[in-house]
Amino acid sequence: MNNKYNLYKKISIKSYDQMLSVLKKGEDYIKEKSLDEKNFLEARLIDDMYPFVKQVQVFSDNIKGSISRLAGVEAPSYEDKEISFSELKQRIENTKKYVESLSDDLLEGSDEKKIKLY
Fold first, then answer.
1. Is 25 contained in some domain?
2. Are 105 and 3 in contact (CB under 8 A)?
3. Number of domains the chain is built from
């Protein structure tokens, strides 16, 4: 089955792979330069935006939540407790595995479903 929602699933998985790559590069850079990981995880590009760690958590939750609603299933809940690049990578890996586990059949007919956000 190949509808736009199955395509969304494939794009989501690719997005998780890209985030894992970014996290790995950041982690490698920090180790190579012997920098404090906490400074990078708490970094913001501007004062009114979330710190980097929260940006990754929101990224994870948004895709997980949207595809779960389309599939008509409850998304797993993750505590926002990551304090290292390693923990962020694990969160993304777990979320990617969850998205991959959703059967394409669950997404079939999603264009006809009524989605209640709240």
1. yes
2. no
3. 1
Answer yes or no: is 20 within a domain.
yes
pLDDT digit string, tens, across residues 66-108: 999 888 899 999 999 999 999 999 999 999 999 999 988 888 8
- 3-state secondary structure labels for all residues of 8-77: HHHHHHHHHHHHHHHHHHHHHHHHHHCCCHHHHHCCCCCCCCCCHHHHHHHHHHHHHHHHHHHHCCCCCC
Structural domain that includes position 95: 4-112
CB-CB contact of 92 with 60 (8 Å): yes
- CATH number of the domain residue 63 falls in: 1.20.120.450
